[in-house]
Amino acid sequence: MRPPTPLPAIFDGRDLSVAADSFRVALLVPMCGAAGIWGPSCIASAQLAVRELNAADGIKGRPVELIMIDSAIEAKTPTEVLVGSLIAMGVIDAVVGMHISAVHQRLLKTVRSRVPYVYTPLYEGGERTPGVFAIGDTPDMQLGPAIEWLHQKYRHRKWGLVGNDYIWPRISNIYAKRKIAALGGEIAYERYLPFGSESLEDEVLRVAESGAEAVLMTLIGQDAVDFNRAFGHAAMDRRMIRLSCVLEENCVLACGADSLRRMYSAASYFGALQTDENTAFKERYFALHGDRAPMLNSIGQSLYEGFHFLHSLLDTQGEAWAVLTSSAGRSGTYKSARRKASAQSQHALASHTDMYLARADGIGFEIISRLSPDRPRN
Asked: For the residues of 38-97, what is the DSSP string, one character each?
């Protein structure tokens, strides 16, 4: 059995040489707080991408070097402070980040097209800042078809919405409310909670008292785990179904089987995905990290994809990256575990990205349906 690949050190503000033969990328990964549960999977997937790039010509003919930064909103030093310092010193060439939208919004004011910034996870959509490339799934791709599928199966009319209090849950729920209304449903409960909320047992009871028959959960990481545990303990799964777009394999294991009955998740990637591309990806992943590697999930895979996207972007566009936006049509392809080499155009992505609905089974996910996006995203 091969031991897991060691994790790189987290950058803490130490001095870095300006002159470097390597192509330095600030890897932004949450390592504490509610999203910290995703950290190991994110780093392991990024390491595989870097290994593959460096086995060829790296990026712009230089070997890729990672400078890892804790991108949790609860991190001791704000992410944008460290990234801003690294850019100002001229010691990084790009940023590839997996973090929540609240951190993303802060970084937009810091990066300012000085280096390319690839933002990889699912998000609320609408990113048009030059030099910033959001490649993740958006609510119209995930929520619309998932809500419609569940409506056809269960015919539930009353929904409860429970999420963390920041931009992605609020924007996602605006979309969800329109979709639910179009299907003849209504919102029985809506609440946004701060990160690290306690007494989630009380929150579960409030949802139950609202008369909701289904819950759209936009809580992240450990907060989602705590809510699901309380939900299962109160046996609310007998009365309500749950849907999430961000519940992934690490959280499923942390929740436990008794907390996950009738728990659904919608995403474009699951570790259980049965495609030739994912089979090959998993073989390379476990060959690098060993049998005890961190869980494969949509969050981590997004970083794998982000590094290959960055390579293709700079290879095909050169310095023109600084004036392009996420929605700009661009030539070229990049490697993904979700599908065959993917066109970089965001509009092309919308039409070629399969969306899946999966049911949690206590160990991982069982993919039960392939969904189609409601419409191309902007």
From this structure: GHHHHHHHHHHHHHHHHHTTTBTTB-EEEEEEE--TT-SS-HHHHHHHHHHHT--SEEEE
Q: What's the CA gap between 193 and 25, in Å, rounded?
A: 33
| Sequence-ordered list of residues with C-beta below 8 angstroms from that of 18, at least 6 positions apart, any chain | 89, 90, 91
Residue 192 phi, psi dihedral angles, 5° rounding: -120, 130
- Site of tokens 């394999």: 249
Neighbours of 372 (CB within 10 A): 12
**Nearest-angstrom CA–CA distance, 269 and 154:** 24
Do 297 and 250 form a contact (C-beta atoms < 8 A)? yes
Neighbour-count burial for 198-236, b at 16+ CB within 10 Å, e otherwise: eebeebbeebbebebbbbbbbbbbbbbbbbbbbbbeeeb
What is the identity of the amino acid at 118?
A: V
CB atoms within 10 A of CB 80: 20
Rounded Cα–Cα distance for residues 336 and 346 (Å)? 14
- Cα Rg, the chain, nearest whole Å: 20
Are 357 and 262 a contacting pair, CB within 8 Å? no
Report the alpha-carbon distance of residue 196 to residue 302 in Å, rounded: 25
Q: Which two tokens stand for residue 48?
A: 């595989």
- Strand arrangement, sheet containing 186-193: 186-193, 158-164, 214-218, 241-244, 263-267, 355-360, 365-371
Digitized pLDDT (tens) for each residue of the chain, 378 residues in all: 555 555 565 665 566 666 569 999 999 999 999 999 999 999 999 999 999 999 999 999 999 999 999 999 999 999 999 999 999 999 999 999 999 999 999 999 999 999 999 999 999 999 999 999 999 999 988 999 999 999 999 999 999 999 999 999 999 999 999 999 999 999 999 999 999 998 899 999 999 999 999 999 999 999 999 999 999 999 998 899 999 999 999 999 999 999 999 999 999 999 999 999 999 999 999 999 999 999 999 999 999 999 999 999 999 999 999 999 886 534 458 888 887 655 544 434 444 578 999 999 878 899 999 987 665 443
Q: Which of 201, 203, 221 is nearest to 212 (CA)?
A: 203
